[in-house]
C-alpha cells in the first residue's frame, strides 16, 4: 500500500490518494477509484480503507482519493472543484497505469453518499476541464458502484442539508440553476453512460431513497445497464462492505473482466 501519493496540486494545495494492491500479477489489473462521502464538506480517503482493502484482496488495484472540500466560511472550493479533482484522479490512474500494473481500459468508480454522486458523474460525463494536466487521458470510467448517492441537490429544501448545498453551489437553485444542473448526474445520462450498480438503504433518513430510484429510472430510460438493490432495514450508514461486498464484487468482476 502507498499512502499520501500526490495526484495533483491546485493553488499550492496537494491532492492526495492511497493505492491498495495485492501481490504483483503477470497481467495488468483493473482499477477501482473509491470516493468518500461527507456532503463534500467533510470526510477523507481514509473512510474508504475497508472497501479498498477488500478490493485489493480480490485482485483489483484500489485507489482511494481525497478531493477539495467546500469551505463555506472562506467561500472557496465550491463546485465544480470536487468534480475536477475526481476526474483528475481517474486521469492520474490512467497516466500512471504502467507503474501500478493497471489496465487503463478497465477503471471503475465506487462511491458512497456524496461520493456516490461524484462516482455517478464519472460514469456519465467526459472531462469538464479539457485544459487540465493529463487531459489526454479520459476521466470517464467503465462502470459505477453508487451507494446512496445524491442525484438532485435541488430537492433539499430544509436545513441543514439546504445550507450545505447552498454553500457548495454558491446559492439557492433559483440563483444558480446551471450549477444545480451541472452537479446532477441526471443531466448527463445518455446511451453512452457506464453500467451502474446502485444500492440504497430502505431506511435512509439522510439521502432519500427516491434519489436512487430516479437515477435508476433515468438510466433504464436511456437503455443503460443498471442493477438496483434496496436493502431492507438499512440506513444511510449501514452500507458497509459486509452488506454490499458480494454484490459489488460480482458486478465489478463482470464489467471490469477481473479474470482476464
Describe this structure in words.
This protein is an alpha/beta fold. It has a single domain, classed as 3-Layer(aba) Sandwich (Rossmann fold). Helix content is 33%, strand content 22%. The protein has an eight-stranded mixed sheet, sandwiched between helices. Helix 2 packs across helix 4. The longest helix has 15 residues.
How many domains make up the 3D coordinates?
A: 1
The CATH superfamily bears the name Alpha/Beta hydrolase fold, catalytic domain
Query: What proportion strand?
Result: 15-25%
The level 1 CATH classification is Alpha Beta
Number of helices: 9
Overall shape: it is globular
The helicity comes to 25-40%
Rg estimate, integer Å: 17 Å
Largest β sheet strand count, sense and barrel closure: 8 strands, mixed
CATH topology: Rossmann fold
Task: Estimate the mean pLDDT confidence.
Answer: 95
Q: What is the topology, as strand order, of the major beta sheet?
A: 1-2-4-3-5-6-7-8
Task: State the low-pLDDT regions, or none.
Answer: none
Terminal Cα separation, in Å? 23 Å
Count of strand segments: 8
Please write the string of helix (H) and strand (E) elements. Answer: EEEHEHHEHEHHHEHEH
From the coordinates shown, what is the CATH architecture? 3-Layer(aba) Sandwich
Structure classification:
alpha/beta
How are the SSEs ordered, and which strands pair?
Layout: E1 2-10, E2 13-20, E3 29-35, H1 49-58, E4 61-65, H2 81-95, H3 97-100, E5 102-112, H4 114-122, E6 143-147, H5 161-169, H6 177-183, H7 185-188, E7 195-201, H8 209-221, E8 226-231, H9 241-255
Parallel strand pairs: 3-4, 3-5, 5-6, 6-7, 7-8
Antiparallel strand pairs: 1-2, 2-4
Helix pairs in contact: 2-4
Amino acid at each position: 500500500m502507498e499512502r499520501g501519493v500526490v495526484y495533483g496540486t491546485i493553488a499550492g494545495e496537494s491532492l492526495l490518494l492511497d493505492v491498495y494492491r495485492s501481490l504483483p500479477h503477470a497481467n495488468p489489473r483493473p482499477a477501482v477509484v473509491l470516493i468518500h462521502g461527507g456532503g463534500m464538506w467533510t470526510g477523507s480517503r481514509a473512510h474508504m480503507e475497508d472497501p479498498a482493502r477488500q478490493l485489493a484482496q480480490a485482485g483489483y488495484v484500489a485507489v482511494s482519493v481525497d478531493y477539495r472540500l467546500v469551505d463555506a466560511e472562506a467561500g472557496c472550493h465550491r463546485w465544480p472543484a470536487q468534480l475536477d479533482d475526481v476526474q483528475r484522479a481517474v486521469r492520474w490512474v490512467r497516466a500512471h497505469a504502467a507503474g501500478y500494473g493497471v489496465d487503463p481500459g478497465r477503471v471503475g468508480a465506487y462511491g458512497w453518499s456524496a461520493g456516490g454522486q461524484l462516482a455517478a458523474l464519472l460514469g456519465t460525463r467526459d472531462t469538464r476541464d479539457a485544459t487540465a494536466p493529463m487531459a489526454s487521458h479520459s476521466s470517464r470510467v467503465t462502470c459505477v458502484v453508487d451507494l446512496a448517492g445524491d442525484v438532485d441537490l435541488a430537492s433539499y429544501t430544509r436545513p441543514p442539508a439546504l445550507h450545505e448545498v447552498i454553500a457548495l453551489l454558491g446559492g439557492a437553485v433559483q440563483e444558480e440553476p446551471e450549477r444545480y444542473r451541472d452537479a446532477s448526474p441526471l443531466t448527463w445520462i445518455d446511451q453512452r453512460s457506464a453500467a451502474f450498480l446502485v444500492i440504497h438503504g430502505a431506511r435512509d433518513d439522510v439521502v432519500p431513497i427516491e434519489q436512487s430510484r430516479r437515477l435508476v429510472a433515468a438510466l433504464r430510460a436511456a437503455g443503460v445497464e443498471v442493477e438496483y438493490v434496496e436493502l431492507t432495514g438499512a440506513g444511510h450508514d449501514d452500507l458497509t462492505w459486509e452488506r454490499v461486498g458480494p454484490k459489488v464484487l460480482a458486478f465489478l468482476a463482470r464489467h471490469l473482466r477481473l479474470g482476464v
